[in-house]
Amino acid sequence: MEHGRDAVTLRAIAREVGITAPALYRYYDSREDLLRRLAEDICTDLAAELEAELDRIDADDVSAQVYAVCRGFRRWALAHPQEFTLVFASTEDALGSCGPDDRGQVGDQFGRVFLEVAGRLIASHPLPDDLGDDVPEDLHADLAVFQQVLLATVNDRGVEVDESVLPLGAVYHVTQSWVRIYGHVALEVFGRFPFAVSNPEPMFDSMLAQILGEMGFRHLTRP
Amino acid sequence: MEHGRDAVTLRAIAREVGITAPALYRYYDSREDLLRRLAEDICTDLAAELEAELDRIDADDVSAQVYAVCRGFRRWALAHPQEFTLVFASTEDALGSCGPDDRGQVGDQFGRVFLEVAGRLIASHPLPDDLGDDVPEDLHADLAVFQQVLLATVNDRGVEVDESVLPLGAVYHVTQSWVRIYGHVALEVFGRFPFAVSNPEPMFDSMLAQILGEMGFRHLTRP
DNA sequence: CAACTACGTAAACACCGTTCACTCGACCGT
DNA sequence: ACGGTCGAGTGAACGGTGTTTACGTAGTTG
Predict the structure, then answer these.
(1) Protein-contacted positions of strand C (CB under 7 Å)
(2) Which of A50, A70, B78, B111 lies 20 to 30 Å from B154 when distance is taken between CA atoms?
(3) CA–CA distance, B25 with B35 (Å, rounded to integer)
(4) Domain parsing of chain B, residue ranges
(5) What sign has the CA pseudo-torsion A54, A171, A127, A165?
(6) ∠ CA B7-B10-B11, rounded to 5°
(7) Sequence-separated (6 or more) residues with CB below 8 Å from residue B49
(8) Per residue in B119-153, pLDDT tens?
(9) Which range among A51-65, A87-101, B122-136 has the greatest average pLDDT?
(10) CATH second-level architecture of A35-214?
(11) Residues of B in contact with A89 (CB under 8 A)
């Protein structure tokens, strides 16, 4: 992957494994299938990396966990731009949308880690009343589904919460936060900011601070 | 492009033009060079499309212009996902960062249209005092450069403004807005929202409303 | 009219995804 | 112990790709 998606060649892989190219067809239906499963593996690796970082953090300091996951995601994306492009910036028909399930989650394993932290974040803290005040009517149904997914993800880790602490406005805010985090990381990876940012890291951190601030976390130490 | 970047083949192009593949080397140094210049052409087309939409809008209604450009960008991206991927989601080493100039602007022509509207927006309206209150110190230098670019872009269209109406906080807010707009569009094109959004359009519109709201435009008609 | 240039071609090379016929060794039931 | 079956791998082949090279061939210029 280091040299881009086009460099992921059946013959190159076969050479590295010590077999011939047609032998790969015993394990993969086609090159596209191989790339799809490679993307899944990359997701799993990224998730493991983030989870390892999470383990080094106080289990009660949720905002520190948010920082760790988001910064870890950015750091990983900048260190592995080609992998990021494959997993997070490929059209679905070129990758099969990461999983045969109908709903196209964000890279299965990676999404789990992210949702878990997001769920714990809004569950661990009294939220401002005006958060996500005007969530559009048309999104209520979709957000309600996502709300249940978040609840299930959090409950899987032992913490019991009901939907009263996970209002739709907060769910909407989490979605908007993902838009901003993903947007910043992708723009940085692809060099598509409207001007040359000489040091994007403080910009990312201040965005995280603002996102957390809107959720009621103010005056944080930024670990 | 319709069938993806990989389908942009020297021989296919030559076939369509009625010559043979090696003849293309009279005009392009390599396939990569061709793709780079194709990306520039796509940017120009997109810019022309947006500008055509702008011409159908009252020249004084700046917020309507913002809606038109942002919605046009989203509509174009969804209608041309492969082109969007090539121009807005490709690593720089695979495309040369859109232009030989040192500073990697967002697709030259397209960026111009966007900056123009953004500049007119913040110049046409008294901004809230708390806008972009805590812009990180480390970004002051970069933002100042961007501020000058915005001023130059606006002045090029006849409107004379000085930097007093274009405070750094507003410039920072424009950058954050681009992060959100780009993030939403890219997530939608790539199907990487954390849950299945059955109708993303109101979500996009409400994001635009919020962005404009933060700049002091409240209770807008959404054309 | 000779020389030069722009434009295009055919052939070739190395590589690619994919298919097909084939071999080889391990395993299994009798 | 033996024939049969099956998974894993191979080599050859096909059509397609980017790219280079040598060659042609009109049109322009001195």
Answers:
(1) 6-11, 15-21
(2) B78
(3) 13
(4) 37-214
(5) negative
(6) 90
(7) B72, B76
(8) 989 888 888 877 777 899 999 999 999 999 888 88
(9) A51-65
(10) Orthogonal Bundle (1.10)
(11) 85, 89, 186, 190
Instruction: Kindly list the residues from chain B whose CB atom is less than 8 angstroms away from the CB atom of residue A134.
Output: 206, 209-210
- For residue B2, what are its two tokens? 């319709």
- The tens digit of pLDDT for each residue in A121-176 reads 988 888 888 877 789 999 999 999 999 988 888 887 777 777 778 889 999 999 99
Residue B173 and residue B176: Cα distance in Å, rounded?
Answer: 5
CA separation, residue B138 to residues A189, A202, B134, B148 (Å): 20, 7, 11, 17
Length of chain B: 223
pLDDT at residue B110, rounded to an integer: 93
Chain A, window 85-144: residues with a beta carbon less than 8 angstroms from a chain B beta carbon: 85, 88-92, 94, 97, 102-107, 111, 114-115, 134-139, 141-143
Q: What is the DSSP string of A138-193?
A: GGHHHHHHHHHHHHHHHHHTT----GGGS-HHHHHHHHHHHHHHHHHHHHHHHT-S
Asked if B192 lies within 8 A of A104 by C-beta distance, the reply is: yes
A191 with B101: CB under 8 angstroms? no
Quote the pLDDT of residue B102: 44
**Distance of alpha carbon B14 from the chain centroid:** 31
Q: How far, in Å, are A51, A87, A118, A190, B181 from residue A3 at the CA level?
A: 27, 15, 33, 15, 29
| Token pair 């490679």: residue | A38
CA of B11 to C1' of C28 (A): 54
> Does B96 score more than 70 pLDDT?
no
Name the phi and psi angles at A198, rounded to 5: -75, -30
Give the residue with greater pLDDT, A98 vs B218. B218
Q: Give the N- to C-terminal CA distance of chain B in Å, as an integer.
A: 32
d(CA A124, CA A166): 10
In this prediction, residue A79 has a pLDDT band, given cuts at 50, 70 and 90, of very high
Token readout for A43 is 């997701």
What are the residues whose beta carbons fall under 8 Å from the beta carbon of B106, sequence distance 6 or more? A192, A193, A194, B88, B98, B114, B178
What type of residue is B42?
I
Which class in CATH covers the domain with range B37-214?
mainly alpha
* Identity of the residue in B190, B202, B207 whose CB atom sits nearest the CB atom of A90: B190
| Residue A221 token pair | 């130490």
Our CA angle for B71, B72, B74, nearest 5°, is 65
What is residue A126's DSSP assignment? P
